[in-house]
Amino acid sequence: MAERAPGVSQYGSVDPAPPQNTGTLDEWSALLMDETAPMFQRMRTVFSLRNDGSDEACLALCGAFISSSALLRHELAYVLGQMQNPTALPTLIERLSDDQEHIMVRHEAAEAMGAIGDPSVMHVLEAHLGDANPEVAESCEVALDLLQWCKSPQWEETSW
């Protein structure tokens, strides 16, 4: 395996905040939910939880969608797509389906659903292909295309 460039996560992304080097799942979860904490610190916990990778970390991220910050909610959806943990699907479906949710959160939730690669969400994505917001509709189209591609022989040949 090739060595990662400095600052590149295990997911191949350059994150907007470095993950915490120390802490526990409970500590990170509490900080993530703390609306008075600096956004930079909350973002660091997002990446710490993502890197933990467990179902518990995934659920902690899902629980943070109650945040008042659309930026944070968008980042939550993004990292849930990176984690590719089907545990996140009910929450992502809820965020995509909520017409009151910020458009960028809905768009990212759709793309995360495609990244997870579970065909059980196809009907949800199809239902939003005609969404009034082109960003959401197009993200659903991309997610559906990704789900189709995951069933193809090229998927097996791809090395992420």
Features:
Leucine-rich Repeat Variant, 9 helices, single chain, 160 residues, mainly alpha
Structure summary:
By secondary structure, the protein is mostly helical. Helix content is 61%, strand content 0%. The mean pLDDT is 90.
Could you describe the 3D structure shown?
- With about 160 residues, the protein is mainly alpha-helical.
- The protein has a single domain, classed as Leucine-rich Repeat Variant (Alpha Horseshoe).
- The chain is about 60% helix and about 0% strand.
- The longest helix has 17 residues, at about 135-150.
- The radius of gyration is 16 Å and the shape is globular.
- About 35% of the residues are buried.
- The mean pLDDT is about 90.
Which CATH top level class fits?
Mainly Alpha
Q: What's the rounded overall pLDDT mean?
A: 90
Radius of gyration: 16 Å
State the end-to-end CA separation: 11 Å
Total helices: the number is: 9
Order of helices and strands: HHHHHHHHH
Contiguous low-pLDDT stretches (5 residues minimum) are: none
List the helices and strands and how they pair.
Elements (H helix, E strand, L loop, with lengths): L24 H9 L5 H14 L2 H9 L6 H14 L5 H9 L5 H14 L5 H6 L6 H17 L2 H5 L3
